[in-house]
Structure formats: C-alpha cells, structure tokens
C-alpha cells in the first residue's frame, strides 16, 4: 500500500532544520577577524605617524622602536590576507590576540615602559577580545592584561599609585563594558536567528497547508468530475437495459423468438459493459487510495499476449515478435488487463483491417513491451496528459469509452515498478511502451502444471530466438 505522509511528518525535517539553525554560531568569526585586521592596520599606521612626527620634533627613540614598528607593520599587512575562506578556529583567534598583546607590550617597553602613554593600546586589545569572545573570556583577557601591566609597573616603579589604580581599573571596566556589549549582541543575533528560523518554518508550514488545500481542491474537483462522467457512462447501458426490459414487458406477444433473443443479447452486452465500467471505477479507487494489491508470479509473456488477444478479440490482427526474454514478474490478471486496454484502444482508433504490432524485448533488468497500431496517432502535445483520468483525444471524443483505460494502465504498470509512455510508431500511428521487471531464479514457481504458450516459429527458420504470432497462435 502507498503510505501518505502526515503533515507533521512532512514538517518534521523542516523543524529539525530550523532547530539546527538556532544552534548555529551567533557571529561570523571570519568576518570579525577581517574587521579586526583592518582596525589593527589603522592603529599601526596611526602609531607610525605619531612616531614620525616625534622624530621630526627631535624626540629620539632607540633602534628597537624601529624594529618593533617594522614588525608590527608587516604583521598588520599580512593579517589582512592571512584568513582564507575557512572560519578561523578558537586557537587561531587566541593566537592573534596574544600576538597583539605582545606587540603592544614591546612598543610600551621601547617607548618608556610602564610610564608610556601608549599603554592605552591595551584597551584596543581588550576591545578586540570582546569582538571575538564572550563576557567571561573578555574579562579574563582584561585581568591578564592588568597582571601584565602590573608586572611592568613593578619592574619600572616610580608611577603614582593613583595613576596605576586608575589604569588597571580602566582596563577592567573596558573589559566588562565590551564584554556586556558583546553578550548583548550575541543574544540579539541569536534571537534574530531564532525569529528567522521560526518565520521560515511558519512559511514552510503555510506552504505545506496551501499545497494540501490545493490537493484537496483538486481531489474535490476530480470527484465531481468522476461522478459526472460515471453517471453519464452508467446512463447509456442502463437506458439500453431498461429499454429491452420495457419492450419485453409491453410487447412480448408481438415479438418473435428471434427478436427476443436479439434484445436479450443486446441487454447482456450492455450489462457486461456496465460491469466493466464498475470494475474500472473500483480499480481507479484502489489506485488512488494506494490499496492496489498484486499477486506477483513469474509469467511467460506469451501467455499474457495470448490471453489478452483472446479477451480483446484481436488474435487475427496481431503481429507479435518476442525475443529471448524469459519470464516477467507480474500479476498476470493485471498485465492482461493492461494489454487488453491497449488493444481495445488500437481497435477503436486504427482502421478495421490494420495490424497491431507487439514487440517484447530486453531492457536491462526489465522487459519492454511495445504495442503499435496503424491509426492516426496521438498529437505530441496530448501525449503527456493522455494517461490522466477521463482524458481522451479531442478528435476521438465520439468514440465509446470512459477515459479510464490508459489511467488504469499507468497505475497497474507503475504498481509493478515499471513505466509506460506513448510515442509515434515507425509507420505512423501510436506506439505504447511499458516495462515490467524480469523474473529471477528465486521467483520461479515451485508448482508444476503451469500452462505454457507454444508459438509457431517464424518462417525464416533462423533460430534467432524471435517468434512471430499471427492468427494461428494457440495455447497447448
């Protein structure tokens, strides 16, 4: 049976995707590092400019200052291109932070030690930590810088205690403020991503509901069409049967035995037509409900073709070519019904004395059946929709039939795991092609006494394994 997914099952995957989205990183680490690299380069250039101006005013610094500046410039420029398309790891970001702190410390040492006014560069390092990490890590970085700067103060001495406390406090306050801002930014981004995921999930749910509404609308429309067509198709045979019964009731005495027999045979034919229509409608219902059950057994294609030819009354018009295809794994009744529908289609649209050619051949793990007639064919723009319910050729709408035959053919073939299509035959006309799975050794039936179709070999006597079936085909 065909299992139809429930809406909550359909939306389950989407919901899981949305939940994964909410667990995504709350910031783009690669973009953050690139922005920090830009800020780093700008700060280094400002420091270089200040250093150049100080040299012009006569303030002298040792050669180590030039070395530190040169290394800092090289590092700042290289960092702009150091981060590729991959997101940097925590280790890489931590290393970049430590290198920044090291350069600031080196510059502070060569410009006066703890008393250097460049100590404020440590605040930029703390800000970069807030851009990279959360509140706790940022506070940890601020505390570490305080320890580092405190060590410089102890080593140099001479700074007023109030100034030292002021600078150390400022570093901690900066770390706390930047960390809080980073925390709030992360919360806002996370909330924004959650809202976006919820919007996307609701959009998917709405889209699912819309598709379901559209499907139900089509089902309702199809049911209305189904009832209308079924009522029309029932009306004709019922009217004929009622007419026969009325004639027998009202004019029985005036009818000869021959007339009575003709009327009864006509009523019986209409009753059989009615039974076929009921059977078609039941099959359509099973196909659409996914309740179609098949009894799959290995079957010789010759048996299928022989019984279909007898059921369609077209044995004398068939030209059949069968390769060494072995047996197919199928439900014989279902496949015979497919073949019978295709042969009935050929009889309705092809000239009365024309031939219907059937070819059975290998197609990989499948067996391909080709049924070609000599009729007018099917226009290319109508081939795709010809297998829909109640769909009939525009020029063939006057032909008898309910428009269910090809729909049933497609449902039965696809239930076997095959496909069916229609194209143009070599000599004109329509060629229906469908496939069925080949039977394997494991599929071979254990029961004996199975009827086999023996066909007269083709007149060329080549022993090629292909056989021709004409009017003299028989089951032995």
Description of the molecule:
The structure is a single chain. The protein folds into 2 domains: 196 residues, no CATH class; 179 residues, 2-Layer Sandwich (Heat Shock Protein 90). The protein has 476 residues and is of the alpha+beta class. It contains 12 helices and 10 strands. α6 packs antiparallel against α7, α8 packs across α12 and α10 runs antiparallel to α12. The relative contact order is 0.07. Helices cover 61% and strands 10% of the residues. β4 and β5 form a beta hairpin. The N terminus and C terminus are likely disordered. The strands form 3 sheets. It has a 6-stranded mixed beta sheet.
Look at the helices and sheets and give the structural class: alpha+beta
Q: Name the beta content range.
A: 5-15%
The amount of helix comes to 55-70%
Number of strands: 10
SS field, number of helical segments: 12
Strands of the biggest beta sheet: in what spatial order? 6-7-5-4-2-9
Count of domain modules: 2
| Topology as a string of helices (H) and strands (E) | HHHHHHHHEHEEHEEHHEEEEE
What's the N-to-C terminus distance?
A: 37 Å
């Amino acid at each position: 049976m065909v299992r139809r997914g429930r809406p909550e099952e359909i939306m389950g995957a989407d919901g899981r995707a949305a939940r994964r989205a909410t667990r995504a990183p709350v910031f783009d680490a690669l973009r953050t590092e690139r922005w920090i690299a830009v800020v780093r380069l700008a700060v280094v250039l400002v420091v270089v400019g200040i250093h150049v101006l100080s040299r012009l005013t006569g303030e002298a610094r040792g050669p180590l200052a030039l070395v530190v500046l040169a290394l800092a410039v090289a590092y700042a420029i290289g960092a702009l291109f150091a981060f590729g398309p991959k997101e940097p790891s925590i280790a890489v970001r931590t290393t970049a932070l430590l290198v920044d702190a090291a350069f600031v410390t080196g510059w502070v040492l060569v410009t006066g030690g703890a008393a250097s006014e460049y100590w404020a560069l440590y605040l930029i390092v703390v800000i970069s930590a807030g851009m990279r990490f959360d509140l706790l890590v940022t506070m940890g970085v601020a505390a570490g810088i305080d320890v580092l700067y405190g060590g410089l103060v102890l080593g140099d001495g001479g700074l007023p205690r109030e100034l030292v406390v002021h600078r150390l406090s400022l570093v901690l306050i900066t770390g706390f403020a930047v960390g809080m801002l980073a925390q709030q930014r992360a919360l806002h981004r996370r909330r924004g991503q959650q809202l976006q995921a919820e919007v996307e999930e609701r959009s998917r749910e709405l889209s699912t509901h819309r598709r379901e509404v559209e499907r139900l609308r089509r089902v309702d429309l199809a049911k209305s069409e189904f009832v209308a067509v079924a009522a029309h198709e029932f009306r004709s045979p019922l009217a004929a049967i009622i007419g026969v019964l009325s004639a027998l009731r009202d004019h029985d005495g005036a009818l000869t035995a021959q007339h009575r027999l003709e009327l009864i045979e006509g009523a019986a034919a209409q009753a059989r037509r009615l039974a076929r229509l009921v059977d078609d409608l039941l099959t359509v219902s099973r196909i659409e409900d996914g309740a179609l059950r098949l009894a799959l057994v290995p079957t010789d294609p010759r048996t299928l073709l022989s019984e279909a030819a007898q059921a369609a009354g077209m044995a004398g018009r068939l030209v059949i070519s069968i390769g060494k295809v072995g047996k197919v794994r199928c439900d014989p009744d279902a496949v015979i019904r497919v073949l019978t529908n295709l042969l009935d289609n050929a009889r309705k649209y092809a000239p009365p004395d024309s031939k219907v050619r059937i070819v059975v051949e290998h197609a990989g793990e499948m067996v391909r059946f080709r049924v070609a007639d000599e009729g007018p064919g099917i226009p290319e723009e109508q081939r795709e929709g010809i297998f829909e319910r109640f769909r009939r050729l525009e020029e063939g709408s006057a032909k008898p039939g309910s428009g269910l035959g090809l729909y049933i053919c497609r449902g039965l073939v696809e239930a076997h795991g095959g496909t069916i299509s229609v194209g143009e035959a070599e000599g004109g006309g329509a060629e229906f092609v469908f496939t069925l799975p080949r039977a394997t050794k494991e599929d071979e039936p254990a029961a004996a006494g199975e009827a086999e179709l023996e066909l007269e070999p083709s007149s060329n006597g080549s022993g090629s394994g292909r056989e021709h079936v004409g009017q003299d085909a028989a089951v032995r």
